[in-house]
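=== RUN LOG ===
request id: a7f3
mode: sequence -> structure
chains: 1
length: 322
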Amino acid sequence: MISVERHLRASGATDIVSVSGGKDSTATYLLAIERGRPFVALFADTGNEHPHTYEYVRQLAAKTGGPEVEWVRADFASDIARKRRFIAERWAEDGVSQQRIDRALELLQPTGSPYLDLCMWKGRFPSRKAQFCTEELKRRPLDARILQHQRGGGWAISWIGVRWDESPARSGLARWIRDDGRVWRYHPIRKWSAADVFALHRRHGLEPNPLYMLGMGRVGCMPCINARKGEIAQIARRFPQEVERIAEWERLVAEVSKRGAATYFARDTAPGTPVGAPIRDVALWARLTRRGGRNLDLEALIEDESPPPACQSIYGLCEGAR
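=== RESULT ===
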């Protein structure tokens, strides 16, 4: 694969780094700075990020000396318009009351949040088995912008910060993968550990996204549909406003869904809650249960009543590892 890189460099390929505000994409951005060649940095704004992440991305160039990060957003206005026509023409045939139809048409408008617009169009939230959020909110808008940056239809190198030890699905991922058209996906940190990633942050004098010091294992979306129980508990305790925001989204998506119901987390997320539990119930389950997650636990209750620690990193960042 060395010949692939040489060929791409000789052809004047455009380097494009995808940034999410997370540790791995930030390390990839820093690595691109160290390579010393001009590059473009892109951030796909899902509309479902924590304010800490938005601020981190905005400040990245100023703190590192790298290029400004361009923001891209998915647009579902045309999809929503088609769904509005479908609701007006077809829901009554399926036995939906005119009152519900009128209410759905009233609410089904672009909201300014790509994530919410996507879910209102689909009439549901993504899940582990149907994780359409990544494709629709990140890959497609990023790919569209990458095409705009290709010089004269030349080659583009899309730098992506993924690592083998993140998940079984990524284990063994190749360094270079030919994509559609004239794009190669490049995975320069695929063999790195989390410790390697944070070491690169330290080398550049850059603090990681502060969410990592507040108990978050991941920072893409707040919360991510794949968040573990402990992370959901931390979000519920530290950022209750995010739980309330998602609760409002559940209400909106339910009202524009023919089923009349929608929950952010899939039924297998919280085994101790009713099937299809709303996020408020999932948050309580995460905060107040242990031991299999079905019964209230006194120790968890006591812990929940105490202020959370100022720093609580699963990566050891609170013990001077930064």
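=== NOTES ===
Strands lie at 14-19, 40-44, 69-72, 156-159, 176-178, 183-186, 289-290, 295-296.
DSSP finds twelve helices and eight strands in the chain.
=== END ===
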